[in-house]
Amino acid sequence: MAQIVFDNVTKVYEDPDRGHVQALSRVNLEIEEGSFICILGPSGCGKSTLLSMLGGFAQPSTGRVLLDGMPTSVPGPDRGVVFQAYALFPWLNVLENIRFGLTCRNVADSAGIANRLIKLFGLEGFEAKYPHELSGGMSQRVAIARTLANDPKVLLMDEPFAAVDALTREFLQDELLRVWEQDRKTILFVTHSIMEAAYLADEVLVFAARPGRILHRVRIAAPRPRHRSDAAFLKEYANLEVLFRGGH
Ligand SMILES: Nc1ncnc2c1ncn2[C@@H]1O[C@H](COP(=O)(O)OP(=O)(O)OP(=O)(O)O)[C@@H](O)[C@H]1O
Question: To which protein family does this belong (predicted)?
Answer without folding.
Answer: Belongs to the ABC transporter superfamily.
